[in-house]
Amino acid sequence: QLQVFLKITELKSITKASEALFLSQPAVSIQLKKFQDQFSIPLTEVVGRQLYVTDFGEEIAEAAQKILNEVEAINYKTLAFKGQIAGRLKISVVSTGKYVMPYFLSDFTNQNRGVDLVMDVTNKNSVVKSLENNEVDFSLVSVIPDQLNLNRVELMENKLYLIGGTKEKFNRKVTKNKILESYPLLYREDGSATRNAMETYVKNQKINNPKKMELTSNEALKQAVIAGLGYSIMPLIGIKNELKNGDLQIIPYKGLPIVTNWNLVWQKSKNLSPTALAYLDFLKSEKDRIISDSFGWYKNY
Length: 301
Known about the structure:
A hairpin with a 2-residue loop joins strand 1 and strand 2 (50-53). The radius of gyration is 24 Å and the shape is globular. By secondary structure, it is α/β, with parallel strands linked by helices. Helix content is 42%, strand content 23%. The chain has eleven helices and eleven strands. It folds into three domains: 2-81, Winged helix-like DNA-binding domain superfamily/Winged helix DNA-binding domain (Arc Repressor Mutant, subunit A), CATH 1.10.10.10; 86-156 and 261-300, Periplasmic binding protein-like II (D-Maltodextrin-Binding Protein, domain 2, 3-Layer(aba) Sandwich), CATH 3.40.190.10; 158-259, 3-Layer(aba) Sandwich (D-Maltodextrin-Binding Protein, domain 2), CATH 3.40.190. Strands 3, 4, 5, 6, 9, 10 and 11 form a seven-stranded mixed beta sheet that branches.
C-alpha cells in the first residue's frame, strides 16, 4: 500500500501508477482505498477528472518514503550480515555510454544478487548535474568536466568516425574530402558530448557546411544517416551491428577518428558506500578481461 500510494503521489494518476507498477487499475484503486481508510483526513481528491494529493497526503507520502527506505536498509543489512554485498548502486551515463556501461556491470550484479542497480541514461549536462548534486555514486563520461574535483577509472577508448549510409545516391562528382562541405551534417542536441566533439572538429578544420540537422538520440541519428539524410561524426561503439550489416560505412577523413576515453568518475569528497567500494574493486580486477571479452571487435577499427 505504501508503494502504491507513493507511485500515485508521484504520477498524480491511478492509471499511470498501475502501468508503472505492472498492476491492474482496479488493484491499484483497491489498495489506495484500503490505505485511505486508515486515516480520517483525505489523502487525495479528484477535481474534474484530475487526481490531486492533499497537503495531508503529501505529508503521509513523505513519511511513507522514509519507512520504505528503512525497510530497504534492513534488507540490505540482513544480506550484509550473511556476508553478501548488498545495497543500491546509482550510476548516470551519457547516452552513448549505454553501449559500454552494461558490460562493466553485468558480472558484478550477477555475482552479488543483493545489489540493486539504478542507471540513468541522459546527456552530458544532466550527468554533470547529477554529480554536482551528489545524486549518484558514479558517472560514465567521455569528456571529464573541468569544474568538478573528480576521481576516475579509465575504462576504454571512445573513437568517433565520419559515418555515412550505404544506400545514398549522392553526386558522384563530390570527392570524399568535400563530403562535409557538400551534404547536410547531422548533430546530436545541445549538451551532448558527441555534439561538442563534432562542433569542435568542424570549427578546427574550418569546414563551411551549408546545412545541419539536429536529432535528440543516437538511435534517431543512426536511422537518419542510414536513410541518407546526411553524414555525421559518431562514436564507433554504438554502430557495431549497422557496420556488420552493411547499413553504415566509415568514411576515412582527415583528422579522424577523434579519440577520447570512457571514464567512470566520482567526486573526491564523496563518501562511497560499501557497495560502491566493492564495485571499484571489481572494476580494477576485471576491467581488462571485460574489454577483451566484450570489445575485441573494437580494435579492428
